[in-house]
Every structure is written in structure tokens, then in C-alpha cells.
């Protein structure tokens, strides 16, 4: 059985937490497990609503789905969340323009299935740290086009401009990834409140040096806050082979 550690934190600068998360280590609907992070954007209450609605809708739709195929289950759940957030945004002026990122995953037979929209990230961690998702942001598109270096991107003034988000338009383009897992792999999901405050090298060092994934989550949030805590911080770490590794 896998083990999941998760936490969300308001950070040091924001007046409310617009991040949301949902994790389930045991079967939910026809999925064996699920882990979801969402980072809302919009007015004071709008971003909070967008992320919370997205996470709750994904949970509900996964539970209700009669489909057996993980990617189709995730796709339907995220598209339904997009419909709900978008319809609320166009029907209620105080929620106009809201949206949210989401990154979610599920594991079935040692294969990780991932879906993402926006710039919340999923990493595979073993001896190295490999970003599986691709940010849907203006700055990352400039990096991929060779117009910006990674270091320049970290502090670029347009870093917060998202090119894809849930709830912004009626039609949604979702990225999907499949990753074969092996013993020793860990999975990290996070909002940009972590990655904007803590570099990849430090994230990898903290995860590898911590005594447990629970300690890793606490330390990552602590370091992000120590480095400024400019945004809400959400961290989820999944150990897919927890029982096998720890039973020896």
C-alpha cells in the first residue's frame, strides 16, 4: 500500500489560503488512490472558491464514475470541474475572472497517471528530481522556446501569467502523462508557493535527508516560509512502495 503525506499553509504574505488539496490512499470509485493539488486565482474569495470547487468536484466525479480507465476518469472529473467553476464565474459578478490550476495523479499497477492544467507541478524523485508536468505559463513557454534561461524565469515579472487554467473558458486543454514507477521513487505535487521559494536542489536534498515523507512535507513548508513565504504553499508527497520498503 502507498503512503501519502500532505499539508497546505497560508505562507507569510497572504491574508487567506487559496490552495486546496485532496488525497486518498485507498480505493475511491474505480481508482486505487488519488492525490490532487489546486492553486486558485482571482479576487479575495474567488480564488478560494475556484480551487475548493475543483478539488471537491474531482473527488465527487471520481467516486461516481463507472469508467475503468484512469486517464478517462481524471479527464472527465477535471472537465466537469471546469464547467462548474466557469459557470459560476459567468453567472455571479463577484466570481468573474476566477480560475485555478490543478495537478492530480493516481497509481495503478506501478504506473503513475498524471493530469495537469496550469503551473502547479508534479515531480518524480529518486536519485534525481524530474519534473513530469509542464507549466502552462507565459514564462515557461518562453523558456521552452529558448527566449529565456531557467534562472531568468525564476524571478521574471510575468511569472504569474498562466496560459491555461480551470474555469477561465468553457473548453479546457489538459495535459496527461504516464510514468512507470520503481522502488525508491517518490512523487511530489506542489503549488508554486513551494517552487518559487525553494530551488530544485534544496527540495531534492530535503526529501532525501528527511526521515519520513511527513518530515519532508513539514520541512519543505518551513523552508519556503523561511525564504519569504510570498504565496500559499501546498505540498503532497506520495511513497508508492511504502509497505514493501518498510517491511524489510
Summarize the structure in short.
The protein is an alpha+beta fold. It is built from 8 helices and 10 strands. The mean pLDDT is about 95.
Q: Could you characterize the architecture of this molecule?
A:
The two termini are 14 Å apart. A hairpin with a 3-residue loop joins strand 6 and strand 7 (129-131). The chain is built from 8 helices and 10 strands. With 248 residues, the protein is of the alpha+beta class. It has helices at 46-64, 70-91, 138-144, 150-154, 192-195, 200-209, 213-226, 242-246; strands at 3-9, 19-24, 34-41, 99-108, 111-117, 121-125, 129-131, 175-180, 186-190, 233-239. Helix content is 35%, strand content 26%. Strands 1-10-9-6-7 form a 5-stranded antiparallel sheet. The protein has a 5-stranded antiparallel sheet with strand order 2-3-4-5-8, with helices on one face. The chain has a single domain (3-246), classed as Phosphatase 2c, domain 1 (4-Layer Sandwich), CATH 3.60.40.
Helix and strand layout, with pairings?
Blueprint: E1 3-9, E2 19-24, E3 34-41, H1 46-64, H2 70-91, E4 99-108, E5 111-117, E6 121-125, E7 129-131, H3 138-144, H4 150-154, E8 175-180, E9 186-190, H5 192-195, H6 200-209, H7 213-226, E10 233-239, H8 242-246
Antiparallel strand pairs: 1-10, 2-3, 3-4, 4-5, 5-8, 6-7, 6-9, 9-10
Helix pairs in contact: 1-2, 6-7
